[in-house]
């Protein structure tokens, strides 16, 4: 029996989001910034119990690449997207599977017995979200899973690959496995920087992957962090930073690199290496305050829509607009979720 043929193969840290509102006290108590994403340190160890004991928690399937993969699956025909990452054999993993099923995302998790699935504390204050992640078993993903009889054929059959920057904190070898294979086969590899701390503290890992990357995605904070960490402190405009990233060395030079930087409700900037001095700026149709329910997952939703556009063969312009449309729909829901019944994005 032949393996299923998914167009898009995604990899990242599967997490269950534990989301609370009006979290100003939590920001102060745990020394958090209103709009940030960090890995939990010792001082954050009790935040998860704190949420459960003292707040009304909404549980939402999370993990950056998984959110984006669910978004792409929402946009694309059934059977187009598959996702991998490490989970435990617990209730959290079962909740993730249920959420994926609704959007039509298939998963080939590496399930580790006796381990706990990762979680993310999502502290909402106004229109900002502060993310505190405990990776748990997600950081124990084994590269060997990619060559397993179940997963290897899926990688061989896929035409597009997507990896979140968060995964580079522990899984750079697995990311290199995917990116080098994609590059050698002339397939499209997409990387999201994911958070400022990735550019600041995992620059070496990022630098290993970028030569094999066809499309790099990030937001304005991640772009600025990358510029600062890589000796470009004087380039502060998004088109300028995007140009610098687009022109970095690339192994498969036959496909010019594309860099996509979002900037919240303002605009999205796209620069391609073959036309580095011709940035494209796409304005965002801003929502009113009353329309915005929750901005958590908006960036991942943008990537989901964008990937949907790219995978289905639409133009770059159409893919960006699809990203805007799905992000807009997402922030009118609670958490990184998408509206039902389905709306037509592409």
Automatic annotation (TrEMBL):
Its cofactor is Mg(2+). Gene3D superfamilies: 3.30.1110.10, 3.40.1190.20. Keywords: ATP-binding, Kinase, Magnesium, Nucleotide-binding, Purine salvage, Transferase. Its EC number is 2.7.1.20. GO terms for cellular component: cytosol; nucleus. It comes from the Eukaryota. One of its GO terms (molecular function) is adenosine kinase activity. The keyword Kinase applies. Pathway: Purine metabolism; AMP biosynthesis via salvage pathway; AMP from adenosine: step 1/1. Residues 27-342 form the Carbohydrate kinase PfkB domain. ATP dependent phosphorylation of adenosine and other related nucleoside analogs to monophosphate derivatives. Belongs to the carbohydrate kinase PfkB family. This is Adenosine kinase. It comes from Pholiota conissans.
């Amino acid at each position: 029996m032949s393996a299923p043929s998914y167009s898009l193969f995604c990899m990242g840290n599967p997490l269950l989001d534990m989301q609370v509102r009006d979290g100003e006290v939590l920001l102060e108590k745990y020394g958090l910034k209103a709009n940030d994403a960090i890995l939990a340190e010792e001082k954050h160890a009790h935040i998860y119990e704190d949420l459960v004991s003292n707040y009304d928690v909404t549980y939402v399937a999370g993990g950056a690449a998984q959110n984006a993969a669910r978004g792409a699956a929402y946009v694309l025909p059934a059977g187009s997207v598959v996702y991998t990452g490490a989970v435990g054999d617990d209730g959290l993993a079962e909740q993730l599977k249920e959420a994926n099923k609704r959007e039509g995302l298939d998963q080939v998790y590496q399930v580790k017995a006796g381990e706990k699935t990762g979680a993310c504390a999502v502290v909402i204050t106004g229109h900002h979200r502060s993310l505190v992640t405990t990776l748990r078993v997600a950081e124990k993903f084994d590269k060997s899973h990619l060559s397993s009889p179940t997963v290897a054929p899926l990688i061989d059959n896929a035409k597009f690959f997507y990896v979140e920057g968060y995964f580079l904190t522990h899984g750079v070898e697995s990311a290199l496995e995917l990116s080098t294979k994609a590059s050698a086969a002339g397939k499209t590899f997409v990387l999201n920087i994911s958070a400022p701390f990735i550019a600041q503290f995992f620059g070496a890992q990022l630098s290993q992957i970028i030569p094999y990357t066809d499309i790099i995605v990030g937001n304005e904070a991640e772009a600025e962090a990358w510029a600062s960490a890589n000796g470009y402190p004087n380039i502060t405009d998004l088109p300028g930073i995007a140009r610098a990233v687009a022109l970095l060395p690339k192994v498969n030079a036959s496909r010019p690199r594309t860099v996509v930087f979002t900037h919240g409700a303002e605009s999205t900037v796209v620069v391609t290496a073959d036309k580095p001095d011709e940035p494209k700026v796409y304005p965002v149709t801003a929502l009113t305050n009353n329309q915005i329910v929750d901005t958590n997952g908006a960036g991942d939703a943008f990537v989901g829509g964008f990937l949907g556009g790219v995978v289905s063969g639409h133009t770059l312009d159409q893919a960006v607009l699809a990203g805007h449309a799905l992000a807009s729909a997402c922030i009118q829901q609670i958490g990184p979720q998408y509206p039902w019944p389905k709306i037509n994005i592409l």
